[in-house]
């Protein structure tokens, strides 16, 4: 899962609302799916909070996993499982 919000709109709950709307739709459209994953830079606490408020749980840590802005970065893996 990925999302981005313009800097001027940070902190307004836009990403949380969008994730809460999108995830159930994914499972409705693809009933065979049981899991959605999101990878978040360990320093991006705002995005981690978006996922937590949207029902995701932290599932793991991956060192040197993601290349972004010219650097290899560590990420947390979040999961949303179908009940």
Give the SSE layout.
Blueprint lengths: L13 H16 L5 E7 L3 H9 L3 E12 L2 E11 L2
Antiparallel strand pairs: 1-3, 2-3
Low-pLDDT parts are none
State the helicity in percent bands. 25-40%
The main pleated sheet reads as:
3 strands, antiparallel
Overall strand count: 3
Strand content: 35-45%
**What is the assembly state of the chains in this entry?**
single chain
- The order of strands across the largest sheet is 1-3-2
* Overall morphology: globular
How would you spell out the order of helices and strands? HEHEE
Structural class, from helix and strand content? alpha+beta
Determine the N-to-C terminus distance.
19 Å
Question: Can you walk through the features of this model?
Answer:
The chain has 2 helices and 3 strands. It has 83 residues and is of the alpha+beta class. A 3-stranded antiparallel β-sheet has the order 1-3-2, with helices on one face. The longest helix is centred in the N-terminal third of the chain and has 16 residues, at 14-29. It is globular, with a radius of gyration of 13 Å. The two termini are 19 Å apart. The mean pLDDT is 95.
Briefly summarize what is shown:
By secondary structure, this protein is α+β, with helices and mostly antiparallel strands.
Give descriptors for this structure.
83 residues; alpha+beta; three-stranded antiparallel β-sheet; 2 helices
């Amino acid at each position: 899962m990925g999302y981005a919000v313009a800097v001027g709109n940070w902190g307004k709950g836009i990403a949380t609302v969008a994730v809460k709307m999108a995830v159930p739709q994914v499972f409705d459209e693809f009933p065979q799916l049981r899991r959605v994953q999101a990878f978040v830079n360990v320093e991006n606490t705002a995005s981690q909070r978006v996922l937590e408020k949207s029902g995701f749980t932290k599932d793991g840590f991956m060192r040197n996993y993601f290349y972004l802005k010219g650097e290899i970065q560590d990420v947390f893996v979040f999961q949303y499982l179908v009940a």
